[in-house]
Amino acid sequence: MKKTMHRLSTFVFAFFSCVAVFAQTIYTGPLFDAHLHYNEEAWNGKVGPHDVLDVVGRLSRSGVKAFVGNSRPNAGTTTLAASAEVKAAGIKVVPFIRLYRNRADYTGWFADESIYQMVLAEYAKGTASGAYKGIGEFHLYDSANANGEVAKKLMRFAQDKQLAVLAHVDDTAIDLLMAHAPQVRLIWAHTGIGGASAERVRGLLTKYPKLMGELSYRPGLTCDGGQLCPEWRSLALDFPDRFLIGSDTWVNQRWTYYEELMTGYRTWLGGLPADVASKIGWKNGANLFGLK
Ligand SMILES: [Zn+2]
Questions:
Q1: Tens of pLDDT along 71-87?
Q2: Residue 4 Cα, ligand 1 centroid: separation in angstroms?
Q3: Cα(37) to centroid of ligand 1, in Å?
Q4: What φ, ψ does residue 65 adopt, rounded to 5°?
């Protein structure tokens, strides 16, 4: 009898453990997409497959209530910022100034005075949703270019105007960029797309209290069941105020899978304590840009 009871309780325990694994809660709160591009080819003013209504539909179905918009050229962002449909859907636009007028600008912006002038002009114009709140996303494929004259000037401009900076760079460039403007709010796009170690990420977050990590395309982020891998789980728990999620719709294919991308985030957010999930999913972005 005792043995039977023991077997029974083992069975019951195993059963409920399985239920606990499969009934993994999914995060159901609002999402802040901190890395959204509405590039020319997505809409094109005429024939793009993702017109404003398509975008509003995808964001609404995904529970995205606000996003950082940054587009090549900036007309993509200003279009969304002026859209009655976006406003009617209750979606807030946080406009950033993109440094790129075209693809060629990706590789030379850090030394191109005409880009600095374009940023100043764009900043002066603002958007229908109000002033620009940041600059970027910009890319540095060679971290040494973080010391380019225009890169330095833009970092100081961002610091002076209290603009956030969204930067797709390696860990070495984080140190170089922060040296130009130690008070700037730097959002590290992808938090090390080249695979900087979790320990290195931890070191940088500790060293720079205003550094934030955006997690799209981050290698090694998720493991079994789409949950955070152990070292990223401990980063999220130790720095709950420092991470953001993003779609990075840099090519149209990312628009095609927008809802799946957001479901992926909801899956691992659901595996975190509720307060941490709501910070990373929504509050960190909302607080950064003063949204309700
Ligand atoms: Zn991007």
A1: 999 999 999 999 999 99
A2: 59
A3: 7
A4: -105, -10
